[in-house]
Amino acid sequence: MLKALLKSDVIISAIIFAGALYLFFETKTFGSLDVFGGLGPEYWPQFILVSLMALCMGLAVSTIRTALKEKVLKTPKIKFTADNIRFIAATALIATYLGLLPIVGFLVLTPVLMITFMVLLGERSKAWIFSIPFVLTIGIILVFTKVMYVPLPRGMGIFLKISHLLY
C-alpha cells in the first residue's frame, strides 16, 4: 500500500502544494493599493494559489482514501500513442515559446507558435493556417497595446527593430 501511495498522485500533489505555498508567501511582498474596498494586486494570485492548494489537498486525500480501501490497482505504464506524443510536443512547444518570447518578441513568435500548433492539432486548410494566426496576433496587439496600454515583449536585436517598425 505504501508503495502505491509513493507512486501515486500524493507526491505530485505535495510538490505542487509546496510550490503554491511558496508562491503564496511571495505574493505577500506585492505592493498594495490604498483603495478602500478595492482588490490589491495580490488578490487574484492568492485566490488562484489557495484554490490550487485546496485541489492538491483534495486529490491527496482522495488517493489516500482509495489506497486505504485497497482498491489501488497496478498503474498502467505510459504508452506512446499518437495522442501522447502530440501532447508532449504541444507541451514542449509552449515551453519553447515561453523561453524564446523575451528574445524573439511577441509579434514574430506568436504567429509561428499558432501555425505550428494548428499543424500539430491536425488542421489541413492552408487558408486557415496562414490567416488566423496573423489576424489574431494583430488583434491581440491592438487590444493590449492600444486599448489596455499593456506592453508586449518586443524581443532583442533585429526582432526589436521589427517590432518598432510595426507598432
Overview of this protein structure:
With 167 residues, the protein is an all-alpha fold. The protein has 7 helices and no strands. The longest helix is centred in the first third of the chain and has 26 residues. The model has no long low-confidence stretch (mean pLDDT 84).
Query: Major beta sheet, specifics?
Result: none
**SSE string, helix = H, strand = E?**
HHHHHHH
3D shape: flat
Percent range of helical residues? over 70%
Structural class, please? mainly alpha
Compact description:
The protein has 167 residues and is mainly alpha-helical. Helices cover 72% and strands 0% of the residues.
List the helices and strands and how they pair.
Elements: H1 2-7, H2 9-27, H3 43-68, H4 82-104, H5 106-120, H6 126-147, H7 158-166
Helix pairs in contact: 2-3, 4-5, 5-6
Question: Can you give keywords for this protein?
Answer:
167 residues, 72% helix, 2 domains
